[in-house]
Write a structure and sequence with these properties.
CATH class: Alpha Beta
Strand content: 25-35%
Order of helices and strands: EEEEEEHEHEEEHHEEEEEHEEE
Helix content: 10-25%
Oligomer: single chain
Distance between the termini: 13 Å
Strand order of the largest sheet: 12-13-14-15-16-17-18
Number of domains: 1
Number of helices: 5
CATH topology: Metallo-beta-lactamase, Chain A
CATH superfamily: Ribonuclease Z/Hydroxyacylglutathione hydrolase-like
Length: about 260
């Protein structure tokens, strides 16, 4: 039974400035945003034994009542932010990490006070190593003071449910997660496998730290996971956010949508 949910934050355009601007395909003209790429943002919530697992935390945007969108979306599912046990961070770019902290009324608090935040040590140090507009270090200062940060070293396991692998393809210390809950094997590929369409494209992306490695890993994760019935979580998908591989009559595979409706 699928127990993974998209905490969809919206559709955005982003250009070289690394500013994420809301984009509505019904009224906004993409030609007016030249040089931009267009992405959706899907943090994921997995209902697991002993507590909730959160995969990346979104942009940290707020709704009209000044509540974090990610908090609102968690509550819509019948849970509370305090129910989150693990926050699994693929990397620390601001579109993935800004929801780690709740900045409200001039006060900064960690957004998930009962959770451990799992980050690769190399990614943490890299985020502080230069003036990179993809990172918001004021977020990391709050996390560091909280006592909830767990810095990981290389590949390993968090517990019997969650393991992680460093692949260094999108950022130098980007990591992916394998999460085993309720008989399902969830694979969260972060920005190395952010959209289902990228599985079927043989391309090297300029925005990746190592584009050739990212291309090769997409193929590897797809070939391995479709045979083993993984459930893929696609963070930037414009179509299928939660999907599985399904064999077609001609022997090839396609992605099918298995999201909870």
């Amino acid at each position: 039974m699928i127990q993974a949910y998209s905490l969809y934050e919206g559709s955005f355009s982003v250009d070289a400035s690394k500013v994420f601007v809301p984009f509505d395909s019904q009224k906004d003209d993409p030609l007016s945003r030249k040089g931009s790429i267009f992405v959706h943002v899907h943090p994921f919530l997995i209902v697991a034994e002993g507590g909730l697992i959160l995969c990346d935390t979104g942009l940290g945007f707020r709704d009209e009542s000044n509540e974090l969108l990610i908090h609102r979306n968690i509550r819509k599912l019948g849970f509370e932010p305090e129910d989150v046990k693990y926050v699994l961070m693929s990397h620390l770019h601001k579109d993935h990490a800004s929801g780690m902290v709740d900045f409200k009324d001039g006060v900064a608090r960690i957004a998930f006070p009962n959770a451990e935040y799992f980050v690769q040590r190399g990614e943490w140090e890299y985020a502080f190593s230069g003036d990179n507009p993809s990172y918001k270090t004021e977020i990391f200062d709050v996390i560091q003071r909280s006592g909830n940060l767990v810095l990981l070293e290389g590949d390993g396991e968090i517990d019997h449910q969650v393991s992680y692998e460093v692949n260094g393809a999108h950022t130098p210390f980007h990591q992916v997660f394998h999460i085993h809950v309720g008989g399902e094997h969830y694979f969260f590929g972060g920005d190395v496998l952010p959209e289902p369409e990228e599985i079927f494209k043989n391309f090297i992306a300029k925005y990746d730290f190592d584009g050739r490695l990212a291309r090769d890993l997409r193929k590897k994760y797809w070939e391995e996971g479709r045979e083993a019935d993984w459930t893929y979580l696609f963070y930037h998908s414009k179509s299928i956010a939660v999907g599985k591989g399904e064999k077609k009559e001609d022997g090839s595979y396609k992605i099918i949508d298995v999201a909870v409706k």
